[in-house]
């Protein structure tokens, strides 16, 4: 049985996620290729959460062979894997999750790849580094990928603690999924809307010429606009501006009710506070308009910047108004009146869109590019979200570590013993500890009971060195919070706890999906999680 | 003592990392925590229970947390739309019991764990059954099932018994995990008012003035189906039924020029589909199981008592202590206050109760201490009490009366002290 519009097998399988990111997001996911460095438990769990929703391809780089310890934390290895390549076995068991996903593996270290064949890295959509990767390698990866705009996630997961750092230079998001995109244009009605108000509300105060039924079914938008006209005629042509005027306006609305249960008037009264705002361009949108990439387009400008520039020019020609999104909330009304009102908003949105499309075409031609290279549907999506678009400017790992560390962010938090910045310092010390050792016989702090005390002292020393390097002053003794964070990290002996790895895999995969689909808003740029107090904090480092 | 046997049947290295946490005290560990073999042994002997839509994640996590004796209950069979997140199931498993397939998979993958599956509703098991567990972890998607297990565990509290309930739930990019120590900390029922009630569309809108695609779909299922199909119940999973509703809704929408009715939306509206993704399920289930491990071993302090996760805008968690309510119908001992209009009828009161999440019940029966106002069953008593539905409340009760509401879905009564609005 085939019904037009009935879902395909794939739509059925992915139904619950398509309701979040739609066909466009799914398409982006299915063409992505993820590189995972090291098949740790956290890394494998991250891939699990990307393979299930149907990421296109993944590749695991890992030189390790599977040990018994791996089996205690990683679900995507089994008894028969012991002694074999960890990259290969994890790849095989992860591929079982979704036949549509292609998995690959490379039995090598990332150090070797960075040194001998860095060009291979350019093929990936996103890179996720997990496990013990030393600082030099991380910074080399960053130096290769960051300028290319390939996002790198650096994930550390030790005991009850995890951190995830995203290095991504520029990330524009159009589909941020705001709760609502409604703009009723109450303070600047366009001619078609004003005409409808005049037509429908001429007898709003006349019980002879309007029936009770008609009065009780006037869409609240029209009631508000009619009452505003009335208000403005006695208030210097100004709408209510402050709280007390808005309350006065509500009383005026109430006085127009013919009986106590006219829901449409109740809806109008409830809409005063949320919708009575003078039109303005939100700060995030203004920042996009003022960005140099918007003000000076080049032949290489991406689609985002060309459309942003077109919308900027549109708003300059239209009294600072953004294109109308065109959405209308439900309201008490007769079907035909509601649909008519809805069509008036939609027609205006279409007219605004046509104007923006025209500007886009002209801009492209002016740049010597094909005027048709940007699809109208892309412009439409942007127009609908113009007031909700967001631009994230990230920082590279090299900036964080070497060029311009955010010492202030760290020092501000140091005296708070509950701050998660202590785990950041502890994990940086952990990284310094393993980076000091040669690849072959690397051991983690606290790997053996006998080394716990000595390793604790070493981590403390690494933290003080880091603080000195950042010129952060601290009392001679390290602060209590940092001591405790180091204590927890050494206690774990470099080991992962499956639950924390699994949670990490969820958090990282969710961020990867947001970045790949360019929908929703990813964190910028470091999230820390403490599994003891069950808290997260995001820092910009 | 044969205490450490289970953890050491595998290679001693297998649980090395978990053992690091169990054999070493951490800076935040409670004073009562005694690192060493004891927490390991306790973990291995402890019986734990898991259930719900997060079941796959929960079973994996518990097995890799060192729990050895796990029970799982799930009445559902595997559907194609589960495969994007319930990672123990494959296309060939569609139609099979979730509990059985999941249990078999995890036992095969993680050596030494015993998982006992039951293909039934959690309500099919009695107090004796639940008493055997030390911890219950639930990722149930129905409010009714969560209220039931919560009330059951609160009722079980006694001198020897206190079973922590760890509850998790997700919706899209958001989720929450919480720890409930029955009668000690805030319970599921205490926080029911946090749920936002689903705003019902007035029947007259559906019947005569539809404006939205959803109005057309609801018209098809609420009005047109019973009219044309009589007593036949809608099966939301039967594609023929869904197609019928979709076609009807489409016709309705065309008649009123309403754009936007789609098949997917039809399914979404009639099944009240909530978006669900692998990553959020992983976060919430892992958080729940991490708390189970901490409670079982005391290796680190546990969550007291609520964590909310929001992932659609950056990464945000809100961890806080939810307050226990003295007038909670399950774990409190005081009745709640309820103001009613004395002129309204009993039937109107019952409709009003449906609008509040804590009183949304399937088949409520109402009593005062003096008399039965309306009983849903048995049939004879239902017929006897039915005339009361038409009566005004002032004829049936007085101010200060205690109104008690019971429902076959709930193992407890809701108690209210009545006052009349003036
Ligand atoms: Zn309670």
TrEMBL record, chain A:
Q: Which GO terms describe its molecular function?
A: NEDD8 activating enzyme activity
Q: In which pathway does it act?
A: Protein modification; protein neddylation
Specify the superkingdom.
Eukaryota
Keywords of this entry:
Ubl conjugation pathway
Q: Name one Pfam family in it.
A: ThiF
Q: Name one GO cellular component term.
A: cytoplasm
Query: An example of a Gene Ontology BP annotation on this entry?
Result: protein neddylation
Q: Does the keyword Lipoprotein apply?
A: no
Matches recorded under SUPFAM superfamilies: Activating enzymes of the ubiquitin-like proteins
Residue span, THIF-type NAD/FAD binding fold domain = 14-535
Under InterPro entries, the record lists: APP-BP1, ThiF/MoeB/HesA, ThiF_NAD_FAD-bd, Ubiquitin-activating_enz
State the protein's purpose.
Regulatory subunit of the dimeric UBA3-ULA1 E1 enzyme.
Regarding protein family, the annotation reads: Belongs to the ubiquitin-activating E1 family. ULA1 subfamily.
Name of this protein: NEDD8-activating enzyme E1 regulatory subunit
- Say which species the protein is native to: Arthrobotrys oligospora (strain ATCC 24927 / CBS 115.81 / DSM 1491)
TrEMBL record, chain B:
Molecular function (GO) terms for this protein are: ATP binding; NEDD8 activating enzyme activity
Q: Tell me which EC number(s) this protein carries.
A: 6.2.1.64
Amino-acid biosynthesis: present as a keyword of the record? no
Q: Which residues form a coiled coil?
A: 379-406
Q: Name one GO cellular component term.
A: cytoplasm
- Which reactions appear under catalytic activity for this entry? ATP + [NEDD8 protein] + [E1 NEDD8-activating enzyme]-L-cysteine = AMP + diphosphate + [E1 NEDD8-activating enzyme]-S-[NEDD8 protein]-yl-L-cysteine
The family database entries (InterPro entries) matched by this protein are listed as: E2-binding, ThiF/MoeB/HesA, ThiF_NAD_FAD-bd, Ub_act_enz_dom_a_sf, Uba3_N, Ubiquitin-activating_enz
UniProt xrefs under Pfam families: E2_bind, ThiF
Q: Which UniProt keywords apply?
A: ATP-binding, Coiled coil, Ligase, Nucleotide-binding, Ubl conjugation pathway
- Keyword Endoplasmic reticulum among record annotations: no
Q: Where is the E2 binding domain?
A: 338-421
| Pathway membership, UniProt | Protein modification; protein neddylation
Q: Out of the domains of life, which is the source?
A: Eukaryota
- Gene Ontology biological-process entries: protein neddylation
Q: Which SUPFAM superfamilies match?
A: Activating enzymes of the ubiquitin-like proteins
Its function, per the record, reads: Catalytic subunit of the dimeric E1 enzyme, which activates NEDD8.
Regarding protein family, the annotation reads: Belongs to the ubiquitin-activating E1 family. UBA3 subfamily.
Put simply, this protein is called NEDD8-activating enzyme E1 catalytic subunit
């Amino acid at each position: 049985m085939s019904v037009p519009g009935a879902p395909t097998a794939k739509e059925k399988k992915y139904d619950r996620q398509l309701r979040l990111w739609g066909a466009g997001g799914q398409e982006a996911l299915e063409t992505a290729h993820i590189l995972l460095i090291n098949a740790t438990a956290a890394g494998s769990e991250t891939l699990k959460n990307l393979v299930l929703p149907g990421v296109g391809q993944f590749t695991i780089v890992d030189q390790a062979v599977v040990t018994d310890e791996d089996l205690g934390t990683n679900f995507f290895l089994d008894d028969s894997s012991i002694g074999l390549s960890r990259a290969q076995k994890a790849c095989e068991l992860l591929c079982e999750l979704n036949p549509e996903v292609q998995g690959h593996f490379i039995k090598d270290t990332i150090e070797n790849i960075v040194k001998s064949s860095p060009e291979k890295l350019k093929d990936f959509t996103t890179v996720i580094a997990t496990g013990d990767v030393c600082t030099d390698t991380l910074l080399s990866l960053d130096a290769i990928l960051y300028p290319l705009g390939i996002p790198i996630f650096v994930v550390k997961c030790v005991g009850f603690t995890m951190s995830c750092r995203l290095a991504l230079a520029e990330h524009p998001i159009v589909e941020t999924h705001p709760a609502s995109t409604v703009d009723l244009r109450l303070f600047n009605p366009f001619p078609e809307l004003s005409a409808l108000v005049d037509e429908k509300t001429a007898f709003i105060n006349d019980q002879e010429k309007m029936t009770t039924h008609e009065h009780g079914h006037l869409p609240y938008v029209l009631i508000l606009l009619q009452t505003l006209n009335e208000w403005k005629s006695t208030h210097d042509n100004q709408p209510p501006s402050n709280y007390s005027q808005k309350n006065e306006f509500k009383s005026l609305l109430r006085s127009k009710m013919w009986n106590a249960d006219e829901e449409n008037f109740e809806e109008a009264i409830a809409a005063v506070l949320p919708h009575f705002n003078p039109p303005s361009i939100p700060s995030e949108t203004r920042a996009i308009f003022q960005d140099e990439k918007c003000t000076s387009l080049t032949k290489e400008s991406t689609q985002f910047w060309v459309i942003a520039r077109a919308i900027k020019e549109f708003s300059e020609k239209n009294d600072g108004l953004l294109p109308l999104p065109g959405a209308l909330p439900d309201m008490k009304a007769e079907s035909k009146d509601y649909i008519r009102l809805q069509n008036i908003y939609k027609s205006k949105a279409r007219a605004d869109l046509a104007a923006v499309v025209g500007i886009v075409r002209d801009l492209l031609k002016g740049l010597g590019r094909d005027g048709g290279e940007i699809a109208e549907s892309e412009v439409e999506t942007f127009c609908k979200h113009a007031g909700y678009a967001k631009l994230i400017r990230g920082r590279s790992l090299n900036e964080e570590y070497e060029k311009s560390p955010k010492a202030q962010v760290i020092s501000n938090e140091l005296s708070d013993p509950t701050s998660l910045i202590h785990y950041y310092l502890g994990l940086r010390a952990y990284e310094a500890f393993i980076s000091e050792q040669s690849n072959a016989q690397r051991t983690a702090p606290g790997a053996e009971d006998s080394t716990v005390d000595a390793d604790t002292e070493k981590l403390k020393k690494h933290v003080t060195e880091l603080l000195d390097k950042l010129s952060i002053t601290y009392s001679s003794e390290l602060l209590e919070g940092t001591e405790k964070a180091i204590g927890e990290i050494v206690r774990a002996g470099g080991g992962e706890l499956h639950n924390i790895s699994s949670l990490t895999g969820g958090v990282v995969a969710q961020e990867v999906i947001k970045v790949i689909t360019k929908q929703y808003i990813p964190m910028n740029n470091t999230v820390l999680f403490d599994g003891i107090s069950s808290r997260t904090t995001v820092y910009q480092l | 003592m044969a205490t450490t046997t289970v953890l050491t049947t595998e290679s001693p290295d297998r649980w090395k990392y978990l053992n690091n946490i169990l054999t070493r005290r951490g800076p935040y560990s409670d004073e009562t925590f005694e690192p060493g073999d004891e927490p390991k042994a306790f973990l291995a002997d402890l019986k734990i229970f898991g259930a719900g839509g997060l079941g796959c994640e929960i079973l994996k996590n518990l097995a890799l947390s060192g729990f050895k004796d796990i029970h799982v209950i799930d009445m559902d069979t595997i559907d194609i739309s589960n495969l994007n997140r319930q990672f123990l199931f494959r296309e060939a498993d569609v139609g099979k019991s979730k509990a059985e397939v999941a249990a078999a998979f995890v036992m095969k993958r993680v050596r030494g764990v015993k998982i006992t599956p039951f293909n039934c509703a959690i309500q099919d098991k009695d107090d004796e059954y639940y008493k055997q567990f030390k911890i219950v972890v639930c990722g149930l998607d129905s409010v009714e099932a969560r209220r039931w297990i919560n009330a059951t565990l609160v009722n079980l509290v006694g001198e020897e018994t206190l079973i922590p309930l760890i509850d998790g739930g997700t919706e899209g990019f958001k989720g929450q995990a919480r720890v409930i120590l029955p009668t000690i900390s805030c319970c599921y029922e205490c926080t029911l008012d946090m749920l936002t009630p689903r705003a019902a569309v007035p029947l007259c809108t559906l019947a005569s003035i539809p404006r939205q695609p959803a109005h057309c779909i609801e018209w098809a299922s609420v009005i047109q189906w019973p009219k044309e199909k009589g007593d036949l119940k809608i099966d939301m999973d039967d594609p023929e039924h869904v197609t019928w509703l979709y076609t009807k809704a489409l016709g309705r929408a065309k008649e009123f020029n309403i754009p936007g009715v789609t098949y997917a939306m039809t399914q979404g509206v009639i099944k009240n589909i909530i978006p669900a993704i692998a990553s959020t399920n992983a976060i919430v289930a892992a958080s729940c199981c991490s708390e189970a491990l901490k409670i079982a071993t005391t290796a680190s302090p546990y969550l007291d008592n609520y964590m909310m996760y929001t992932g659609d805008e950056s990464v945000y968690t809100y961890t806080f202590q939810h307050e226990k309510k003295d007038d909670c119908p399950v774990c409190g001992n005081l009745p709640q206050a309820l103001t009613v209009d004395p002129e309204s009828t009993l039937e109107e009161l019952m409709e009003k109760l449906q609008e509040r999440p804590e009183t949304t019940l399937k088949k409520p029966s109402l009593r005062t201490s003096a008399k039965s106002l309306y009983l849903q069953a048995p049939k004879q008593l239902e017929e006897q009490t039915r005339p009361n539905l038409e009566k005004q409340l002032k004829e049936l009760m007085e101010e200060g009366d205690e109104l008690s509401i019971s429902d076959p879905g709930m193992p407890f009564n809701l108690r209210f002290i009545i006052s009349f609005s003036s």
